[in-house]
Write a structure and sequence with these properties.
alpha/beta, six-stranded parallel beta sheet, 10 helices, 6 strands, 53% helix, DNA-binding
Length: 214
């Protein structure tokens, strides 16, 4: 699904995606319309502009990621401002691409977003990882280690450690000599055990426990 308030841009992105073989299930031109149509069509990937009338893109992302657990969000924005990037990530976006990217970069970003890999315009990835670390230094919302805390397997912990270091699922698969799908399964299992909702929360959990060190 493609959400942008500029009709020509929205239609061009939708055409490029359709030409590449993607099924574009819906488009929307404002925030409330985006929420309604996404809930109705349940897309796998949402290509989302941040500057939307009616409801900001970050709020659209936050609302839909909470309502549609399988949704991946790729923000496609004209803004490279750090505050916008961090707000998008905190809202649950999987990736952030500037509109200056070419069609090939967009298609690659959509494919990687669909696979659950984080996608960021070069130069922004380090910023995002730094924000993960800052978030992790804040007090956790609840007591972390109670007797009921689920136990992760050795392999799940290993995958979690590499996620916290900022590696993509593909890089983790190569490092551990396992398939991309197996990495995804371990991450999904870990999210379920820890009752977390997305990669941002997972990285925060890992950094809180020092799993990104060593």
């Amino acid at each position: 699904m493609v959400v942008d308030d500029h009709p020509m841009w929205r239609d061009a992105v939708a055409r490029d995606l359709a030409a590449a073989g993607y099924a574009v299930v819906a488009t929307a031109g404002d925030g409330p319309q985006a929420v309604r149509r996404a809930r109705a069509t349940t897309p796998d990937v949402l290509v989302l502009d941040l500057n939307l009338p009616g409801l900001p893109g970050a709020e659209v992302c936050r609302e839909l990621v909470g309502a549609l657990p399988g949704l991946r969000v790729l923000v496609l924005s004209a803004s490279g401002e750090h505050a916008d990037v961090l707000e998008a990530v905190k809202s649950g976006a999987t990736g952030y691409l500037l509109k200056s990217a070419g069609a090939g970069e967009l298609l690659d970003a959509v494919a990687r977003t669909a696979a659950g890999d984080p996608v960021f315009t070069p130069g922004l990835a380090g910023l995002v990882l730094g924000e993960y670390r800052r978030l992790a230094s804040d007090p956790p919302p609840a007591a972390a280690d109670t007797p009921d805390t689920p136990r992760l397997t050795e392999r799940e912990t290993e995958v979690l450690r590499l996620v916290a270091k900022g590696l993509s699922y593909k890089q983790i698969a190569e490092r551990l000599v396992i398939s991309h799908r197996t990495v995804q399964n371990h991450v999904q299992n870990t999210l379920g055990k820890l009752q977390l909702h997305n990669r941002v929360e997972l990285v925060r959990y890992a950094i809180e426990r020092g799993l990104d060190d060593g």
